[in-house]
Hints:
Layout: H1 12-24, H2 29-47, E1 53-58, H3 62-76, E2 81-85, H4 94-106, E3 116-117, E4 127-132, H5 144-156, E5 160-163, E6 185-189, H6 194-197, H7 201-205, E7 207-211, H8 217-223, E8 227-229, E9 253-257, H9 265-276, E10 281-286, H10 291-295, E11 302-305, H11 309-315, E12 321-326, H12 333-343, E13 347-350, H13 353-356, H14 362-368, E14 376-378, H15 382-388, H16 390-394, H17 400-411, E15 413-417, E16 423-425, E17 431-433, H18 446-459, H19 464-482, H20 488-491
Parallel strand pairs: 1-2, 1-4, 2-3, 4-5, 5-6, 6-7, 8-17, 9-10, 9-12, 10-11, 12-13, 13-14, 14-15
Antiparallel strand pairs: 15-16, 16-17
Helix pairs in contact: 2-3, 3-4, 9-18, 18-19
Amino acid sequence: MRTPLSMLLLSPEAMTAVDRESAESGIDSYGLMVRAGRSVAAAALKYHPGALRFVVLCGPGNNGGDGFVAARALAESGATVAVHLIGDAAQLKGDAARAHADWIQASPQRPNELTAALSNYRPQAGDVVIDAVFGAGLSRPVPDSLAQIIKAVEEAGLPVLSIDLPSGIDGNSGAVLGAAFQAERSITFMTRKPGHLLMPGRAHTGTLEVVDIGIPERIVRAAAGPVQENGPLLWHEQTGALDAATHKYKRGHLIVFSGNALTTGAARMSALAGLHSGAGLVTIAAPEAALAANAAHLTAIMLRKIEDAQALAGFLEDRRANSFVLGPGFGDLSKARDYLPLLAQRNLVLDADGITAFKDTPQLLFNAFAQGETRLVLTPHEGEFARLFPDLSADDSLSKVDKAIQAARRAHAAIIYKGPDTVIAAPDGRAAINAHAPPWLATAGSGDVLAGIVGAHLAQGMPAFEAAAAAVWRHGDAGFRAGPSLSAETLTHHIHPLSQA
């Protein structure tokens, strides 16, 4: 199944290449600008029909050109419009200069202001601000003059409609470059940028609308890279349908390692999530001291005494034990390091304490899984990521996607870089940004549930990247179904079959 255009993500550089390719193929670039600007004007009138004045803040590039077109269309509709430009109108070039000239030509016949300096804008009650300053192409901090306007607009509580991406947001990383508009709504064209999905860009974008302005789909697809939004089309071909003759071992045997007697809950949540996610068998492997605490809470999940590496080696003689989760509530970092070499030929989800166990010797972990197909899935949050990949974490020149991809290559693992904008990455450079998750998933034990879902997918034979991406989406979906009052214990009961994704 072909990925819809709306799921593709184009970097600002790739979008520039799309614009260039469109012009070279004979498409009228100014015609595209006119369609873009008019779509912005239509949205402004649709969502703010009672505006006393539309204030269009324009930048020196094509984003500003879209703004001039929008201003003219709004004026032609009878609205009161004020245009403010950052920089000198005489320095405008190409389509932006033409759009400005058309705006000036239309202005004298209507009671509208001509183009004024950006610094002259003073917010007024009843204003609706159309942000056409920089869009997604900014890669440096906004100038002080714009930062002051952003602050004034925010303090006045005025609605902002941004063209492409709120000015001040990095289109690649979603980072705030000094200051950024908080848009009520953003209008972008053809498809989205990573900065629309990555935080804090996503929070600044508001409601996002994607408008088709007529660029041929083939040109957009040719420029798209390996980064997409996470969704069922990324992994639906890998889910597999269980045939009528299947048995429990064909659906995989997932083993979750338990911590000591006082920290068994995390492992049980992972195990229960694995069971609800389709694993044929789920076993908790626990030290003797934790057997009674686990046994008191288990029914369909099996229990096995695994006290040390020697006992684990004996258990692993059964090759049907094909997928493991190590880390939730585990506690014993030394034992985690002892277990690693024994698990290197199996599918392993390393979470929480399992990650922390290798903070001083990450290369030991990476070397263990360096050969063959990807069998390791790492699920770090921000702090855990910094423990395994301190140099990548500290590199502010890299986006979260860049960091995740480089980490995946280094570790030869699928990476689930958790957060409100979870990124899933593979060693081959593929990556997905997940937006399908509610904020109330940020609760104790939620990550343990996610680890169990990943483990179940690996047990059933899904490749590591697809298993991770599907688990993140399914985890978020369960969160939506559970609602704001969810707890990790109740979350597992809202995991629905992948066939319903």
